[in-house]
Amino acid sequence: MSLKLTILGCHSATPRTFAHPSSQFLEINNRFFLIDCGEGTQTLLRKHKIKFSKIKHIFISHLHGDHYFGLIGLISTFGLLNRQTEIHIFAPKGIEKIITLQLKLSKSWVKYPLIFHELDSKKSESIFEDDKVEVFTIPLKHRIYTNGFLFKEKTKERNLNIMEINKYPEIEICDYQNLKNGKDFTLKNGKIVKNEKITFDPPSILQYAYCSDTAYFENIIPLIENVDLLYHESTFLEDKKDLAKSTKHSTAKEAATIAQKSKVKKLLLGHYSSRYKDENLFLKEAQTVFSNTELSYEGKTIEILPA
Amino acid sequence: MSLKLTILGCHSATPRTFAHPSSQFLEINNRFFLIDCGEGTQTLLRKHKIKFSKIKHIFISHLHGDHYFGLIGLISTFGLLNRQTEIHIFAPKGIEKIITLQLKLSKSWVKYPLIFHELDSKKSESIFEDDKVEVFTIPLKHRIYTNGFLFKEKTKERNLNIMEINKYPEIEICDYQNLKNGKDFTLKNGKIVKNEKITFDPPSILQYAYCSDTAYFENIIPLIENVDLLYHESTFLEDKKDLAKSTKHSTAKEAATIAQKSKVKKLLLGHYSSRYKDENLFLKEAQTVFSNTELSYEGKTIEILPA
After folding, report:
1. Of B15, B105, B108, the CB nearest to A42
2. Which domain holds residue A38?
3. In this complex, is the C-beta atom of A73 within 8 Å of any C-beta atom belonging to chain B?
4. What is the pTM of this model?
């Protein structure tokens, strides 16, 4: 029950030898997710020893090349490796046509189930849910249709306070699930026993929000409030605030302002423009607003344990 | 007037940290050509300091991903770099749809002219010609429609033998171009002066043949006879001859046999399967048949001067 994020690529625009476009690998509550898939992602997965077999769900924020040009190669490689287990792709409308056209023309249709979940809603929605994790879109403000993603551990059951429960012989084992789910108990005499009197709070849940690419956009604040970790793009510094505005990107200070207003616990910067040679400038600028900020870099891992 | 080939990637199937899929950069008679464009090619171009501005013509052998998945990224990067000069793409039918679909969905149409020359002929044809170089397809035998490419310096003009010419006062300066083009000269008395008597042979022309991917295929021999350099795929060794046959690839020995029968001057092997850890085994096997064989590796350059 921890959250572990590995940064594969965290630079904007074009891949270079030591600056890879967006891609991250997230482990949360024993579920594994690949987030964005720039050119070269499969090579970085190998380099950082992330097993391909762990990947079953891939989330693509938007259809700018630095966020998805590595997807067709990864899908093909899964095929060459004789993968059998299914892959789910969550991405903007159009992705299925792009991928299937290429598989068709190469006559290399993959043998594993390749399932597309195309996104086109402008409202936040739940797009994945199992017993451990739920994933929501975070609609962002960019030049084309773009979503961030909120990865949220499922609400855990309350723990039973057996000592208190035993004071009420009317409560039977078959009632326990209702108590774990937070329900009060009504005694035969009509008196109500409040749930919090007979249960303990569940362990805290962990949440990770990925927001890239986006202009400064306060609409996301209610969606990402209090998350344990926020990755927010910071393509530019304040010296290029106009350029950030016209290209619908954010400055490091703007990312930090969103982090502060959302009361997140930690901010991770990334998607740096290659015009800046010293990435510490991003950190310094952000920390004037939000001190618990860190820089992304290839191979960095962040692990967060529940409070 | 030399031929210089730089190997960017020369491995088959999936990209790895130190094994990149097919891509080569050719300089011939002051013309520059990119041949195949596997994932990561743009990063390798930067690494080996090949200027993007030199690339105007890109040749794609076939639509298996390890030969073209890097193309959309390169095209996009050209756009981000504000390229103005045109790019010509020579590739199997389908490439235009693949590229334009992705540019359209990203709303990132490039501002430079992007010109597609889609190939679907099963016969060798001239697909590019200027005053310096001509390029022909070499139809290959693979699982999908595939061409190799023959890059051939243009036939050069014959050199005038002025001392001999001066013996015939009837030959005037305005006749020289005909002589350079190889024509005989007819004197007023009806007597013919043979061209070879009054001109010298032109400098020899250089030819490079790229043949990947292909099964052993003797039909290509007349097309590549006597070339200065032949790159012929050698995905397997003879120990996997059956696999080579079923996947329509070649063994190192088969590549060498083609080189020998075509009387090429030098053979370059590549497109190695990752199952072989020691690439010297390819060299050894080929050299049992054709001694002037070399191995491709990332960053290797071969320069050939005219005889």
Report:
1. B15
2. 3-156+203-304
3. yes
4. 0.89
